[in-house]
Amino acid sequence: MAWILLSGFDDLVLVAALGAAWVRRRRSGAASPPPMDQVRAKPEKRIAILIPLWQEHEVIGRMVERNLAAIHYRSYDFFIGAYPNDPPTIDAVRDLEARFSNVHLALCPHSGPTSKADCLNWIYQRLGRFEEERTLRYDVLVTHDAEDVVHPDSLLLINHYADDYDMVQVPVLPLPTPWGELTHGVYCDEFAEYQTKDIPVRQMLGGFIPSNGVGTGYTRRALELLAQDSSNRIFEPASLTEDYENGLRLNLLGCRQIFVASTHWRRPPVATRGYFPRSAADAIRQRTRWVTGIALQSWERHGWRGGSRQIYWLWRDRKGLLGNLVTIAANLVFLWGACTWLVSQATGASWALTGLVPPLPRPAVEAALLLPLLHLGVRTVCAGRLYGWLFAAGVPLRTIWANWLNFAATVRALWSYTAAKLRSRPLEWLKTEHAYPDRAVLLSPRRKLGEILVECGAVSREQVQYALQSLSPNVRLGERLLGLGWLSEWQLYEALSRQDHVPLGQVRPQQIQRNACRALPARFAREWKILPFKIMSGSLFLAAAELPGEELRHRLGRFTRLEIRFQLVTATNFDELSRHALR
User: What is the Cβ-side half-sphere exposure of residue 86, based on CA atoms within 13 angstroms?
Assistant: First the structure.
């Protein structure tokens, strides 16, 4: 009872603070986040995206291809880390490197897996060498994982806020899954609440902002301070949650942090999306790492320092060590009490709890019942805003399941941490498997080509309007703008790539594999204007100068069981490839 009241009032503090902030904004008419036109007007800093890999050859290709086509930013590069004893992943990254000029392999000098932090440190070292070779410098580094769906405007927001903040965190939200997937639904509920309520209040009350591990932008100043503070270890290799560790370390070093809270009622948020563990075993494995790193390792490494404000947030981050155990006990007592009460009502016997539980003040009992219900209501509202109210109806059931997952993870974390200390062994990095969402999940409302061209600065709105008004029959907008000389072929195809999230690149004739050309009937390839040019890792790569439609994707399944990967190329490049393939 005492713990339920203490934890319940603790959660009530956040709800009250969030409510008070909302009332103040309504009364003062405070501005929401800056409009995207203002964000896009900022000069682009050079950004490096760091992606650590271990046995991710099946997903990294699709991740990079999709994000290259979707991101509304120009001055960025991918630096992808791999281990020498993981040849399939190395081959997949080298293939991307050959196709896209802003993708670079960062090979670790030793076998893996080590830890995510160790891999990130070596990516940073390789990036430094790349800067020396090219005489350039990256202003901001952003961390991502192999399963991430990067929002098109994510880098624009990081670029905007990096002028004033050393660490910029973009929200991270799980992709929606069917109602029946309880485990993944737990992640949807928890992240919706955490990033709608907990982190904004934490920022408002002056607490440190933990990195989410992905969608985090660090300025070079911040990274250099981290390097100076810890013998050039920007990411702490011994920590199982190097992202949380960095958020705390940067705060202690006096760096400014911001969480870009961009969730709105009427439009999807700017957030990094992806799948989280969808089985109980994987979820417990991941949560064990979180409990170990955030609660136990952080307590061991940093204690309770940083002033009263930070101590409060450290308490909130660590209270799950006891809370996850007590909650299950409370659930069991409640279930047993409810069942025995029903039996007593049906049989007329005395209730089993009578005499076992000492008399308690009525206000305390009522508060112990109402506070968890309030917390459940807040979580339901947060989930409903982001995932819909039908999905939110499952929050009560998923909360019970979440309690069991957290209980199992906490017990496992305490056991493994204690065993490692007694045996003087390092803690094991508990890596979870990654999956990349399929095309159907990633599809969003198709934007108009003219809108994309204006947004990119390729043409003006007036030029688009003139071209539309003067279109001849069977002539498309892009062709008309090319004919007027207002647009280059590459600019047009960049916009087409963004329109349908198909990666754009240049394929050289020497990259064509003869066996790939024979993977599809020649007449079918000519009819649909596609050119098979490579088979790799169970995928058939097709070059096309036209955006592939759903009918083409469906018909391709009749000819091959290989996964189809499209590469958008310019019409000039496609003609060159066709001449070479037909020789």
Answer: 25
Helix axes 60-70, 489-500, angle to 10 degrees: 120
Q: What is the pLDDT of residues 113-129, one digit of tens each?
A: 888 899 999 999 999 99
Nearest to 529 by CA among 577, 493, 486, 490: 577
* CB neighbour class for 435 (10 Å; exposed up to 12, middle 13-18, buried from 19): middle
Residue finishing a domain among 259, 276, 293:
276
Q: In what order do the strands lie in the sheet with 530-536?
A: 530-536, 539-544, 563-568
In degrees, rounded to 5, the angle at the alpha carbon of residue 194 between the alpha carbons of residues 189 and 304 is: 135
List pLDDT tens digits, range 379-400. 999 999 899 899 999 999 999 9
CATH, residue 487: 3.30.300.160
Q: Model's pTM, two decimal places?
A: 0.82
Q: Is residue 387 included in any domain, yes or no?
A: no
Q: What is the domain range of residue 569?
A: 448-581
Report the CATH number at residue 116.
Answer: 3.90.550.10
pLDDT 10s digits, 28-87: 655 567 777 888 889 999 999 999 999 998 889 889 988 988 898 999 999 999 999 999
